[in-house]
């Protein structure tokens, strides 16, 4: 696995001209793996957009190494970089604690009579979105660290950003996706499940910048 990053050239009008919606970012990510395109074998690439100190970054977790020239097409020159992620993943173990960041699409499905596939709805409120993540911790191989507040004992994670992102699908149909960024502290309870969550993603809309969790030792 590889972890890659490039600073997005948000001040460069020419480089940003086509990045008007999540689908365009998806295309940017996919085109950064030309060997996969040539071979006709597409792997899943987890990605998200981070804002750090008034700069924006595209972050990617992938099975194969991206082409840095393609990755840098919409980036600040010289900022595209990649490193082997397996070395970090190999050190993950039960009971270790980490600070995490996750950008996800908290949502739920309602089955409809007579239809094979249900309809997906976004969770709207902060409480619903935090509950969505809390309910998945065991399945994902971690647990939240709890802390005492004036409201009582609460898990140590917060929502630091909430937004609606535009995605243009076929025939110019515009869709808005709920995009929520969580940060906090977690403890690993099942290393195998946790590594899968880090490399396979969490929740829906993974192709469009959702589901990527990254961690650093606490």
From TrEMBL:
Q: Quote any Pfam family the record assigns.
A: CRISPR_assoc
Q: Which domain of life is it from?
A: Bacteria
Q: Which residues form a coiled coil?
A: none
Which residues are the signal sequence here?
A: none
SUPFAM superfamilies with a match to the protein in the record: CRISPR-associated protein (SSF117987)
Q: Extract the SMART domains matched here.
A: CRISPR_assoc
The identity of this protein, by name, is Type I-E CRISPR-associated protein Cas6/Cse3/CasE
Species source reads Ligilactobacillus saerimneri
């Amino acid at each position: 696995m590889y972890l890659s990053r490039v600073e997005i050239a948000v001040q460069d009008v020419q480089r940003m001209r086509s990045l008007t919606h999540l689908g365009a970012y998806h295309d940017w990510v996919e085109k950064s793996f030309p060997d996969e395109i040539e071979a006709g074998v597409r792997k899943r690439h987890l990605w998200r957009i981070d804002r750090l100190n008034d700069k924006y970054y595209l972050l990617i977790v992938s099975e194969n190494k991206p082409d840095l020239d393609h990755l840098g097409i919409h980036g600040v020159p010289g900022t595209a970089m990649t490193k082997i992620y397996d070395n970090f993943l190999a050190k993950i173990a039960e009971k270790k604690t980490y600070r995490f960041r996750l950008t996800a699409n908290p949502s739920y499905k309602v089955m409809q009579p007579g239809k094979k596939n249900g309809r997906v709805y976004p969770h709207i409120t902060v409480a619903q979105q935090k509950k969505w993540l809390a309910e998945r911790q065991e399945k994902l191989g971690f647990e939240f660290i709890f802390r005492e507040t004036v409201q009582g004992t609460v898990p140590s994670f917060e929502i630091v950003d909430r937004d609606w992102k535009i995605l243009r699908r076929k025939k110019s149909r515009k869709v808005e996706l709920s995009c929520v960024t969580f940060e906090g502290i977690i403890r690993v309870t099942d290393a195998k499940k946790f590594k899968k969550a880090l490399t396979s993603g969490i929740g829906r809309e993974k192709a469009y910048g959702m589901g990527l969790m990254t961690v650093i030792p606490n």
